[in-house]
Amino acid sequence: MTRKILHGEKYLRTLLDAYPSPVLVMNRELVIHDANQAAIDFIGDPAKVILNKLCGDALHCMNARQPSGGCGKTKFCSKCVIRQTTAAVAEGTKAFRRSSKMNLNEDGRIREVWFLVTGASFRNGDMDLAVLTLEDVTELMELRRIIPICMHCRKVRDDSGFWQHVEDYLHKYTGVQFSHGLCPDCLKKHYPG
Question: Could you tell me the pTM of the whole model?
Answer without folding.
Answer: 0.69
